[in-house]
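in:
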């Protein structure tokens, strides 16, 4: 098979679509901070689709921004390919669809020249600054909602504002300069999986700005838009096997393709005072209120990812499709969605919740995506406190069930002990790893101690209904093993 080394001069094979537009005529109108797999499978894909549709979309190309030292790898991979990369959609049964995405037209690696990164954001052509900086990237205390002034890099950015190392320093300094120069502010668009992501971003950026200049913070609050959004596409980490398959199956040589499921969804609050791409033309749902869609996704999809992750790992599974095929885990997911999550959801316009929940199970069961449980288990302190703890609180307030949420938290605690049921080590990946592992081990002698961390669980430690359910579940997991414990928790009979 002929090979096609990906760059701007490449002639692609017939079964791989590429940009049908003149990339040389596209200029960046969006700067995106945190170019990773999800951004490239989602937002950049939508922009590419819009550019292919023609019209005035060519003013909405993307300038990628890498803030962290490890972003050098993305810089190098994209630079060698003229910012092109391949998106491969994996359907069950081995069906593959490959497309070369051209919407990223430049990439700025801030550690090379931080002042230059600030200056790039002052360009009047940049009207949207979007970001995927992870659920924990907003530097907000989970229990109080307050901005952490002592967070990594914050004091450094306050001391040397012209050389920012954090997303807060970069964005606020760029906004300050735009204000000083009489340039309209850009819209700040969060694409992270947190409730009210735009509102959280607004509070965090205003809090950081207030540390510098109260008047600047007030101006940001009055003049800068922070639309909320809901984003959805399962995007596993690119493996070497994905790179090899792309080369062997399509002949495309790509240093860092991105793979994803066929499903896609983006619901976006239509609040862009200085203009936006015509996203509605390419499948984005532009709405006045994102919150119902966001809660649906976070409490059904994201929380069921956590529900299958720890039990699945303790059962010995590696991939999500293996876990969801297990009747016990599938029963847990269904019962959690129906009994504990759905009662907390407001009406979602245009969505059939029964069909949506069924679609989640179908998506998880796709064996070709090969989404690892390790990915779902990582960074739990940014996930369960953000996604599931609010479900527990609402259910407790309403007198509803919380037993399954408690069991899911218990499975996390057992996983966080760092040793599986066969005595093999578990690699706990979390920025608060030491703290969580210590709490999980202490919980063995002091049942319920895992819930003592009020930054993670707030006041749940004070509610006997939840604590009792947690203690019962974690005791069953430790005494009987995860499988027998889950069988009793979901009420399944033991096999004869």
């Amino acid at each position: 098979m002929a090979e096609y080394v990906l760059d701007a001069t490449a002639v692609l094979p017939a079964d791989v679509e590429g940009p049908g537009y003149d990339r040389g005529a596209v200029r960046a109108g969006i700067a995106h901070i945190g170019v990773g797999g999800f951004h490239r499978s989602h937002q950049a894909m939508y922009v590419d689709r819009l550019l292919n549709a023609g019209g005035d979309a060519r003013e909405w190309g993307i300038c990628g921004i890498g803030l962290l030292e490890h972003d050098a790898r993305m810089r190098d991979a994209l630079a060698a390919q003229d910012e092109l990369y391949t998106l491969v959609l994996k359907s069950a049964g081995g069906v593959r669809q490959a497309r070369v995405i051209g919407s990223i037209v430049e990439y700025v690696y801030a550690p090379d020249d931080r002042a230059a990164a600030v200056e790039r954001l002052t360009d009047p052509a940049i009207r949207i600054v979007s970001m995927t900086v992870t659920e924990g990237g907003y530097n907000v205390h989970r229990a109080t909602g307050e901005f952490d002034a002592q967070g990594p890099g914050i004091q450094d950015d306050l001391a040397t504002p012209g050389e920012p190392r954090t997303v807060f320093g970069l964005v606020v300094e760029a906004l300050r300069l735009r204000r000083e120069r009489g340039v309209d502010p850009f819209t700040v668009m969060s694409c992270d999986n947190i409730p009210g992501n735009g509102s959280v971003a607004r509070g965090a950026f205003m809090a950081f700005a207030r540390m510098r200049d109260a008047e600047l913070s007030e101006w940001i609050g009055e003049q800068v838009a922070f639309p909320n959004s809901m984003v959805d596409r399962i995007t596993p980490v690119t493996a070497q096997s994905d790179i090899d398959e792309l080369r062997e199956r399509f002949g495309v040589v790509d240093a860092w393709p991105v793979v994803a499921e066929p499903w896609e969804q983006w619901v976006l609050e239509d609040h862009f005072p200085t203009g936006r791409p015509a996203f509605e033309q390419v499948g984005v749902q532009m709405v006045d209120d994102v919150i119902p869609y966001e809660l649906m996704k976070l409490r059904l999809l994201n929380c069921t990812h956590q529900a299958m992750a720890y039990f699945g790992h303790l059962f010995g599974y590696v991939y999500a499709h293996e876990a969801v095929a297990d009747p016990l885990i599938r029963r847990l997911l269904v019962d959690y969605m129906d009994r504990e999550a759905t009662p907390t959801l407001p009406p979602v316009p245009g969505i059939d919740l029964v069909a949506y929940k069924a679609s989640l199970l179908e998506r998880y069961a796709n064996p070709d995506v090969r989404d690892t449980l390790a990915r779902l288990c990582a960074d739990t302190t940014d996930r369960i406190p953000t996604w599931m703890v609010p479900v527990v609180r609402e259910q407790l307030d309403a007198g509803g069930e919380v037993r399954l949420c408690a069991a899911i938290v218990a499975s996390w605690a057992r996983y966080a002990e760092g040793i599986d049921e066969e005595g093999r080590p578990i690699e706990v990946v979390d920025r608060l790893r030491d703290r969580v592992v210590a709490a999980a081990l202490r919980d063995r002698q002091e049942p319920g101690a895992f819930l003592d961390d009020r930054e993670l669980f707030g006041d749940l430690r004070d509610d006997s209904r939840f604590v009792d359910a947690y203690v019962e579940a974690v005791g069953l997991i430790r005494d009987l093993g995860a499988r027998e414990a889950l069988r009793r928790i979901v009420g399944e009979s033991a096999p004869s």
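note: The CA atoms of residues 267 and 285 lie 5 Å apart.
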